[in-house]
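Researcher: I'd like a structural prediction for the single chain below. Treat it as a standalone chain; there are no partners to consider.
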Amino acid sequence: MTKYISTLGLILVLFAGILPTLSQAQPTLAPSVMQHRNDFPNAVAHLLNEAGFEVQTPSGSQQIQPRFNALQLDSTKTFYGYDLNFPGDSTPLFRTVYTYPEANTKVETNYQWDFTEWLPLNRSTLTYDNLNRLVDVLALAYDPAAGTFIPESKLKTHFHGNSSVLIDSFEVSQWSPDLMDWVVQIATQNVFDSNNRILESYSTLGFLGTPIVFKDVYLYDSNGNNYLIESSGIFEGEETTTGKTENTFFNNQLIASNVFTSDGVDFFPDSRVTFLYAPFGMLARHSTLGWNVEIENWQLVQTTDYNYDEEQRITEKFITFYENGIAADAERPTYEYLEGENLALETIYLYDAMSETWSLDSKKYYYYGVLTNVPHEPTPILALSVAPNPTTGLVKIILEEELAVQLFDATGKLVTAQLLQPGQLLDISSLPAGVYQLVAQNEMNYYGSRIVKL
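Model: Treating it as a single chain, here is the predicted structure.
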């Protein structure tokens, strides 16, 4: 079973310099709000996920796609139900279609496959300002009975000056069918000093019954590192200590973060996160520990190891889950890229500790606007004839139209991606013998085929 990480996005700790800055890292909320992350309404959690601020997402799905570039993302498609003894794709399950109706606006529509057609699940409209910062998200849920999308939740952010990361305030609201109006669920306002360091954050949580205000105070050492966060709740006008976060730095890099809860008098250890870094400064290992009351010590809960390519892009994560401090199940997401940070394929393998075996869980393909945007209506994958097949090198695709093609080997690794003109041959003579999966797209359709290389 795929494990889930509970981290929240949108603000502050990363923005204040507490968490290491990674190309794949997700920002997180102030500690007071983090204590209630598991209580977030589904609509609010879904909105933050759709906005790219991770709440509860499979741990292998932490890639952030560039929004406005030459390779504009058109859609993704996720397949499940694999047999490692046979190449090629299995059952499609999820699909996301991206459209760009106007400048600085992106619409994401999610579908689920019901074995006959793609059924819509939800739709999010993301709006960016002139500095390409996310300022508004509107999430709609699909109502099958009404056959239309209905309001679900929305997010609004106010950035600090021209900063691309510092946020003065944000709020997340949920639609109330009873009130026929938006109800604020989370609101946070931050106070900065003259050096743009966050000093205080005030957060209101409205989904706890009576709205409660939490306060987090950030303290810094002589190097400007945030070594302590003091958290409190404001109840009936009285401020009560609820916890603290102690951060340890080495060479201005965060190496450990310890979270303590409080009953207003004493502090009790709750969780611990440690970080190890590669020589070029990127994260090499990230470990999460929990406090074991019986042994009065920290115990491992999860470790994540990162591998990078020559361009310092993440190519693989090795995630291990622990039970009572002992390694158990594991998950290994791998990533293939077209160019730059544009993903081509995300593959997830799962390890079952009971059977001591790995299995291929899913593949998520990324399609880009080489020719045109993906149509709104679900499009079937059509069979594509190629000849000769088997082949020793050159392959002709029997379709006299321009095609954007991607070729994957039996392990799901992308081996080539190119635009073929009518009559142009696909040259795979340099590839080793084996079975390859060909995925192609023209202006109207998606195509698939298998090529056997002798």
